[in-house]
Design brief:
single chain, mainly beta, Immunoglobulin-like, 2 domains, six-stranded mixed beta sheet, four-stranded antiparallel beta sheet, 17 strands, signal, DUF916 domain-containing protein
């Protein structure tokens, strides 16, 4: 009987979302999307949709753009993209340029490995035009990146990626308690995400694998375990909704938008507000990966 009630409540929740008068699947606002990724023909990297950074002569520091380049090439095709380095500092900056593979763990943290070391790496296909550059004060440096996809069907069976790093040294003067000054050289690096997503890969899907109540004596928490079961990277939003069974009052808890690689699993944790009135609640967890992806939801009943 309890299972039938849960299924009925979950069905009503999803039906209400689908009939939202706004026409959206979720009332949760989406975070801004990088517009440099839109309006690009198949076979061209999305970063080419943007231009070199606008005149920012009043700024101070270094600007490296874009943060992401998504090639969309078929087998046998070659692509070229550009990274722009703008030096607003009063001195020349030197950069070492190199590739590194990386994956996201279940919390979203990055783990780095040598280039070509993971199965989904495209580092072997990327050609760096230079591995060392100098950028003068006030200069905008246009750095070319080339990628050659092998002419084989295996090369376009899955999405691949790698990271392009620009590393420089920042000198910092530190004054000790005795008044002596010491020069410390700190290495600073900026990573550009390089993605290769074949145009034939269009299937998008996400699944909830588990929805658990992780409350303890100090905090009431729950978590969603989800997985990207499609073939392309997803940008996901997630939230929980608590409905007081007696009063019908609803409370929503959101988390920031997060990306999911194909096959990647992600643990999304939520803290249940402490100020909720005591009683029985319907707890619904949602993963929303966009308007073209079926929304995933899970539900359970909890006592607060």
């Amino acid at each position: 009987m309890k299972q039938l009630i849960l299924l009925f409540l979950l069905f009503n929740f999803l039906l209400a979302r689908a009939q939202d008068s706004t026409g959206k699947k979720s009332a949760i606002p989406r975070l801004p999307v990088d517009t440099s990724k839109t309006g690009v023909p198949a076979g061209m990297p999305s970063a080419l949709a943007g231009k070199a950074p606008a005149d920012t002569s009043k700024r101070i520091g270094l600007v490296i753009k874009p943060s992401t380049i998504d090639f969309k090439l078929n087998n046998g095709q070659t692509g070229t993209a550009h990274v722009y380095i703008v030096n607003h500092l009063p001195k020349k900056k030197q950069f070492t340029i190199y590739l590194s593979d990386w994956v996201r763990d279940s919390t979203g943290a990055h783990t780095y490995t040598p280039p070509g070391s993971i199965e989904r790496s495209c580092a072997r296909w990327v050609k760096l035009t230079k591995t060392f550059i100098e950028v003068e004060p006030g200069q905008t440096y246009d750095y070319d990146i080339k990628i050659q996809v092998p002419d084989s069907t295996a090369s376009i069976k899955e999405m691949k990626w790698t990271m392009l790093f620009f590393e420089t040294t920042e000198e910092q003067v530190v004054e000790g308690a005795n008044g002596l000054k010491t020069n410390i050289n700190n290495k600073v690096r900026v990573g550009i995400h390089l993605y290769q997503t074949p145009p034939s890969l269009t299937f998008k899907d996400v699944k909830i694998l588990a929805f658990d109540n992780k409350s303890d004596s100090d905090k009431k928490k729950c978590q969603i375990v989800c997985q990207n079961t499609g073939t392309t990277q997803l940008e996901c939003t997630s939230y929980i909704e608590l409905s007081n069974v007696a009063t019908g009052d609803k409370t929503t808890v959101n988390v920031p938008q997060f990306p999911l690689f194909p096959e990647q699993r992600r643990i999304v944790e939520f803290e249940i507000p402490k100020n909720l009135p005591k009683g029985k609640y319907s707890l619904v967890g949602v993963i929303d990966a966009g308007t073209d992806v079926p929304m995933e939801a899970a539900q359970e009943m909890i006592d607060i």
